[in-house]
Write a structure and sequence with these properties.
29% of the residues lie in helices and 28% in strands. The protein is of the alpha/beta class.
Length: 169
């Protein structure tokens, strides 16, 4: 069964993620729509959503420097890195350095880079936004090869080519 989600608000878009007392790597942690200042003003991003669940460790990575600066001021006990994800090696480095149990990824088409990684130590769950069926099929084949099973698939109602996948080992 495919679930339909209607928004990119974290409580709906990433509802399957429970990171209480668990470590999470949040790739693509900046606000979901840079044109929507209300989202930013109301602090409705994934850092607020996940840190509000009280994770044991949180690392947020995004290329939008203004949001990263603001997150660093707001969440002084957690880590934020301003970086553009453009290689499998970068993703693997963040995974190996932060040792997350959960990886959340919303990196706007660059999620195909996961397919260049041959190991995911420590990672028990992946929650990822996929930007098109041309990425979803190879991603699921890659994840299956690393013993991840698809638990849930959701479609973003207003953008039917965008899906959110939740996978577990």
């Amino acid at each position: 069964m495919v679930k339909i989600i209607q928004s990119e608000r974290p409580e709906e878009h990433w509802a399957m993620v429970d990171c209480c007392d668990r470590s999470i790597l949040d790739l693509g942690c900046a606000y979901n729509d840079t044109d929507d200042e209300k989202t930013r003003e109301n602090k409705l991003g994934t850092p607020q959503y996940f840190i509000g669940q009280k994770p044991s460790n949180y690392l947020g990575v995004d290329s939008f420097s203004k949001d990263i600066e603001d997150f660093r001021k707001e969440f002084t006990n957690f880590n934020f890195i301003c970086d553009f994800i453009n290689s499998s090696e970068k993703i693997l480095k963040y995974i190996e350095d932060s040792r997350p149990q959960i990886v959340k990824s919303d990196i706007e088409g660059a999620e195909i880079l996961f397919c260049g990684i041959d190991r995911l130590k420590f990672v028990e769950e992946i929650c990822i936004e996929i930007h098109g069926p041309h990425i979803e099929k190879p991603f699921l084949e890659w994840a299956g090869g690393l013993k991840f099973d698809l638990v849930e698939r959701a479609i973003l109602g207003k953008h039917p080519n965008i899906s959110v996948l939740w996978l577990k080992k």
